[in-house]
Amino acid sequence: MQSDFTLGIEEEYLLVDRDSLRLAEAPETLMTACKNDLGDQVSPEFLQCQIEVGTRVCATIAEAREDLRRLRAVVSKRAAEHGLAPIAVSCHPSADWKDQSHTRKQRYDSLQHDLGGVARRMLICGMHVHVGIEDPSLRTDLMPQMCYFLPHLLALSTSSPFWQGEDTGLASYRLTVFDNLPRTGLPPAFSSWAEYERTTGALIELGVIEDTSKIWWDLRPSHAFPTLETRIMDVSPRLEHALSLAALTQAIIRMLMRLRERNLRWREYDRFLIDENRWRAQRYGVGEGLIDFGERRIKPMLQLTDELTGLLAEDAEALGTMEEIAALRPMVEQGTSATRQRRVFAEAKAKGEDPGQAVVRHLIEEFHADL
Hints:
It contains 16 helices and eleven strands. Helices cover 48% and strands 14% of the residues. It is an alpha+beta fold. Strands 1, 2, 3, 4, 5, 8 and 9 form a seven-stranded antiparallel beta sheet that branches. Strands 6-7 form a two-stranded antiparallel ribbon. The chain has a two-stranded antiparallel ribbon with strand order 10-11. Strand 6 and strand 7 form a beta hairpin. It has helices at residues 28-38, 61-80, 106-115, 117-120, 136-146, 150-157, 174-178, 193-205, 239-261, 271-284, 301-311, 313-319, 322-326, 328-334, 337-350, 355-369, and strands at 7-17, 42-44, 50-54, 84-87, 126-132, 162-163, 166-167, 219-221, 227-234, 290-292, 297-299.
């Protein structure tokens, strides 16, 4: 094949006070200690209560596991020295965005200026998965095909049912916040890399954006790396769930390349239809299924996952990710983080305990479960 499908995983975490379980700003000494340990693999995020990590370029999922586990462990250790704990969740169950401050950095100062109040509400975290595709023309060729599977990735990753102490009724409330930004959502279909460069270049030439890092589609060619980058997923509290989702992303892209080499391709559906599945994933997670547009019916997520696992068997075997792909089924059976958070919330409320605090304690436990 024309690609070795290298992996890179970026995760954003929230920092909470271990005693009050409320969001806490990262002190300068914490960021310095993390930087000393991890170099450019760690960075501040838009809000001061956030921290971002990114793996090295990994040849295999085993390498990604080792690196991501190390990143999570170091952040946890350094945070504990300041009485803090990281949680890998897309929305804090009870925090108010109006109480947060953005990180004083030129990039984030510019974002605050350009986006106004929309930026201030960005109390959300996500997971981005990069898959190496060296040829730019292949990236634009694969993008519209890969879009079909973005709702599946979102459904399996959902971890943000709560916002400001209320159950939103959505499995991924994060996406409703993120979609308020410009240049988000499903990407347009481009006929070539040249068309992609002409289209995005128009905004750059006009000074609207300085580069394509300010384009935040659910799937995009990375600005910094020769990769396709999926950005639709909520961040996963558990390390092993994050790795299964990364393995799924990698295997889908390999499958699409495999079809291409056989003069085949995945059918491209209208963005209107894929958006409907995106909404279903955002609203229900794995609870109500997605539309199979080929069969023209809604299928339960368990059936879709089984079908996808079968479709990707050759790719998972080639990539050495059979175990991670097989783990998707129990993730659907047991429910995503959104399901687990709601369960903890209900149990705490029934006992007369603070349900928001119970959810945060649960998220701290899940973060450390696989370290």
